[in-house]
Amino acid sequence: MTQQSIRELQRAIDWLTLQRSKDWGWGTGTDTAQAIVAMEMTKTGGRLERELSAKQLEIELLARLWQHHDPDSVTLQQQDDEDEALTVANIATYSMALASACHDPRQFHGHDLIGSLLQHETISDLDFSYSSLVACESGTHVRKRHIRRLMEIANTKHTVDSLSVAILALQCVEHDHRNRNVKPLLKKPLATLIALQQPDGGFGSLHTTALAIRALQEGKATWNRTNAVDWLLNHQGPDGAFFDIATTAEVIIALARVSGVAEGIADHCEVRPGADKDNVGTAVIIPHPSAVDTKRPVSVNVSEPIATDEYRLPQISDSGTNVTVSYSLWIGSNITEKRSINITADHNVTFYEIMQRASDLDSAFTFSATEWPNGHYVHTLSGLKEEPMSYHFWLLYKLRSCPDPQNPPSNQLVAPTGVDDLIVQNGEHYLFWYKKL
């Protein structure tokens, strides 16, 4: 891609970023899921921003699963009902977004989304190919019978979307050392897809052209890549959009892959979600070793001054300057309970270490976290676990002054990184607030 093309790609990314709402999502349906894939592949924004979007996706999906009770019972609905129905294609799109955000769709709050996808073998060829692609990108082994059907689709279906997705699924499958014989079998489907390119450079619609570009780019085939990219860019709006959120996200993924500025789905994760696991995902709940089994948080009367305890930790080294930070917990949007502790430690300590030490010293600060490839995600503090169904979450704030219940911090002050990457500084104040979003 030329520098001009890369600038147009950036305009599309900027437009997509501006469409994000205050809840960090992109509206209803699967728009949030599709936008997240584009954001993750291009590493747009900070990790915290992307994680907040992933959290909003989880809330949306949990609400839909609750409405439909069980993803294993999903059946295809008419297109007109797609907003209300949780279809196989919807689940696949949500799962792809979770995998791209390094979250394991095989362990989604008690639901195995990938397992539910692979149970539906009688669905349309397009949905079957997409489900297989998502399963493979999530680190799940695709079985031989699924590969045989993918090969049948790739060799008999001559519509751009079904052929492209089948090729993408087989290209993913081919990376498994057990399926090295697949690569030579892709020559014919790739040649068929190349023949479907139209004289103007496109492959039909924005959606189908984006899919074809991805499939041909991965296949390293000889084709008119420049004309296809130019065709897409000629259909870009003056604001940088490609019609709507979903289509813009698809085009961003295609252009980013061609330009080399993006990694594959979940390739940026240190460990692919679900990798090397047939039935269990990689997420592990790790309570702190000194955790006390508290079913309810320690209660503090809000009419009294904030309880503040001060402890000095042993020196880690003889060099450097000590830092003292305050760490507070607030419970409830109306702050019905609160607790605070001051800790002095050596320099270059992460906030996760501060949390561990606070937990050792005061059971009110007991916590549990999920360990992901990109660090710990704290979900339970003082016996209170996040409740996505009721939109209650723990948010971490990094503040310059002591948190004041009469003037609570705005979400613009949410800590910019995760607890493992947050190096505490002397005199700073950290607040974990359990509230409804």
UniProtKB/TrEMBL annotation:
One family name in Pfam for this protein: Cobalamin_bind
Keywords: Cobalt, Disulfide bond, Secreted, Signal
Record SUPFAM superfamilies: Terpenoid cyclases/Protein prenyltransferases (SSF48239)
Domain of life: Eukaryota
Cellular localisation: Secreted
Record-annotated disulphide pairs: 136-172
GO cellular component: extracellular space
Any one of the GO BP annotations: cobalamin transport
GO MF terms held by the record: cobalamin binding
Main location as per UniProt: secreted
Protein name, UniProt field: Squalene cyclase C-terminal domain-containing protein
Species per Swiss-Prot/TrEMBL record: Aphis craccivora
